[in-house]
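Now for one protein, fold included:
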Amino acid sequence: MLEARISRLEDRLSDVIIIEAGEVCEEVIIGVPVTVRPLDAGAGGERTYTIVPEEELGTVDNSASEASPIGSALLGKKVGEVAEVQGPKGIVRFEIVTVGA
């Protein structure tokens, strides 16, 4: 089991991109904070999420799993784009405000 786990971790690390703290990114990627603004009236103000792998969920403040509806909807989006997330009360639309920093 340990060898299989090590192999999975090595596979993940082979695709790593190093981002310096405070660096602004072009698109939402795993591990980089993203600030979004709900476009629907009454949905509240801006929120910041960090998309993380499931095994890191709970170790990063304001994190969302890459497999969650919000995580999968935000990944790959750029500033100004809109992500649609299926929520319990219907579709919620978020505009990407900042990525990184």
Summary: The chain has one domain: 22-99. The mean pLDDT is 85. The domain at 22-99 is CATH 3.10.50.30 (Chitinase A; domain 3). The CA atoms of residues 28 and 76 lie 5 Å apart.
